[in-house]
C-alpha cells in the first residue's frame, strides 16, 4: 500500500510534501489537549478506575489481544472488569451492549471479538465516557474499566495509560499523520504508565516496559467442520487488519504455503472478496465479519497475548494503590 511506503520508508518524498499537514495536525492536537486541561472542554471521571489501552501510531499494534489478556487475567485476580470502545466503523447512535451475536455494522468488528473472547461486559459508543456510564449502570458489579484504543480520547479521564508499540514497524519515519504514522509525538511515551512492545526488534526505554508476543492457537473451522489435512490444497490467507504482514508472517512461521490477500483495516467482506482457493485462513477479527457467509473453506487462526514480565500482576498492584471507595470518586455531569 502507498501509505505504508510513505510512512515506513526513510525520507520518502511524498512524506516531505505532507509535512505541512502534519504540522497542522500537531497544532490541532495541542489545542484540543489544552482545552481539556483548562476545563474549556468537559472531561468525565467515572466512579471506577479506568485503564486506557492505546497506541501513538495509526494501524494495528495488538491492542485487542492485549485487552483480552487484561480482562481474563484481571478476572483471575478477583476483579470484575468491563470493556468500553469507540466501535470503529460501527453506526451505534447510543451506547450499545455488544455480544457475540451483535451486527458488526452496528458495533464494529473488534468489540464483538472482545465480547466473545473476554466474557466480560462490552459497550461501544463514540463517546467512551457515555459508554462507560451505560455499562456501569447495567453492570454495577464492574469495578474496573478497560478502554480499548482511547489514548487520545481526553473526554474520558483515566487512571492508568498503557501504550502498545509494534516491535517490528516501530514509529515509521517519525512524522505525525498524514506524513507519518504517529498520532502523537514519541515523547508521549515518557508520560505513560507502561509501554508494551508487541514483538521483537524495537528497544524502548521506559520505567515500566513489557514484552508481548502473540501465540497462535489451533485452527478452527468457521462453520464447525472437522479438522482436515491441507496437504496438496490451495491455501489463501485473507485479512483486513492494520498490519497484514504480522498475520502472514505467523502463517509462514507455521510452515503454511499460501497466497496473500490483504484488505483495508476493518473491511466489511462480501462473498466476492473471497479468492478461488480450497482453504481460506483468516484472523479472528475478520472471522467476525465473515461468519454470515458460512463458507466451509474458511478456517480461523486464533492468537493470544503472552506478556513478560507479568503485566496483570503489576497492574493489580497499581490498582490497589489508586483504588478509592465509590463514594469518593467525582463524576461530572455529561
UniProtKB/TrEMBL annotation:
Keywords: ATP-binding, Kinase, Lipid A biosynthesis, Lipid biosynthesis, Lipid metabolism, Nucleotide-binding, Transferase. SUPFAM superfamilies: P-loop containing nucleoside triphosphate hydrolases. GO terms for molecular function: lipid-A 4'-kinase activity. It holds the Pfam family LpxK. It is an enzyme of class 2 (transferase). ATP binds at residues 57-64. Pathway: Glycolipid biosynthesis; lipid IV(A) biosynthesis; lipid IV(A) from (3R)-3-hydroxytetradecanoyl-[acyl-carrier-protein] and UDP-N-acetyl-alpha-D-glucosamine: step 6/6. The keyword Protein transport does not apply. It catalyses: a lipid A disaccharide + ATP = a lipid IVA + ADP + H(+). Its EC number is 2.7.1.130. InterPro entries: LpxK, P-loop_NTPase. Belongs to the LpxK family. Transfers the gamma-phosphate of ATP to the 4'-position of a tetraacyldisaccharide 1-phosphate intermediate (termed DS-1-P) to form tetraacyldisaccharide 1,4'-bis-phosphate (lipid IVA). This is Tetraacyldisaccharide 4'-kinase.
Amino acid at each position: 500500500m502507498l501509505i505504508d511506503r510513505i510512512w515506513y520508508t526513510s525520507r520518502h518524498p511524498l512524506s516531505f510534501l505532507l509535512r505541512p499537514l502534519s504540522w497542522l495536525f500537531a497544532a490541532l492536537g495541542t489545542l484540543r489537549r489544552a482545552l481539556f486541561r483548562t476545563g474549556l472542554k468537559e472531561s468525565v471521571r467515572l466512579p471506577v478506575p479506568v485503564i486506557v489501552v492505546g497506541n501513538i501510531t495509526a494501524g494495528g499494534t495488538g491492542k485487542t489481544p492485549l485487552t483480552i489478556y487484561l480482562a481474563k487475567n484481571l478476572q483471575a485476580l478477583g476483579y470484575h472488569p468491563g470493556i468500553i470502545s469507540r466501535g470503529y466503523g460501527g453506526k451505534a447512535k447510543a451506547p450499545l451492549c455488544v455480544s457475540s451475536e451483535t451486527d458488526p455494522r452496528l458495533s464494529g468488528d473488534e468489540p464483538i471479538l472482545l465480547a466473545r473472547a473476554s466474557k466480560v461486559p462490552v459497550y461501544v459508543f463514540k463517546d467512551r465516557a457515555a459508554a462507560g456510564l451505560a455499562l456501569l449502570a447495567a453492570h454495577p458489579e464492574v469495578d474496573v474499566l478497560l478502554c480499548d484504543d482511547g489514548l487520545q480520547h481526553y473526554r474520558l479521564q483515566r487512571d492508568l495509560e498503557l501504550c502498545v508499540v509494534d516491535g517490528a514497524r516501530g514509529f515509521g519515519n517519525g512524522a505525525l499523520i498524514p506524513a507519518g504514522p504517529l498520532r502523537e509525538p514519541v515523547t508521549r511515551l515518557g508520560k505513560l504508565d507502561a509501554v508494551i512492545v508487541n514483538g521483537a526488534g524495537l528497544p524502548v526505554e521506559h520505567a515500566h516496559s513489557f514484552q508481548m508476543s502473540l501465540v497462535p492457537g489451533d485452527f478452527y473451522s468457521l462453520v464447525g467442520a472437522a479438522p482436515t489435512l491441507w496437504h496438496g490444497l490451495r491455501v489463501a490467507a485473507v485479512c483486513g487488519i492494520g498490519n497484514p504482514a504480522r498475520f502472514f508472517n505467523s502463517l509462514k512461521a507455521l510452515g503454511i504455503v499460501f497466497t496473500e490477500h490483504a484488505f483495508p483495516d476493518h473491511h466489511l467482506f462480501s462473498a466476492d472478496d473471497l479468492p478461488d482457493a480450497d482453504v481460506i485462513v483468516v484472523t479472528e477479527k475478520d472471522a467476525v465479519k465473515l461468519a454470515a457467509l458460512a463458507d466451509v473453506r474458511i478456517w480461523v487462526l486464533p492468537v493470544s497475548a503472552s506478556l513478560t514480565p507479568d503485566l496483570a500482576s503489576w497492574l493489580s498492584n497499581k490498582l490497589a494503590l489508586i483504588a478509592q471507595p465509590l463514594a469518593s470518586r467525582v463524576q461530572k455531569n455529561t
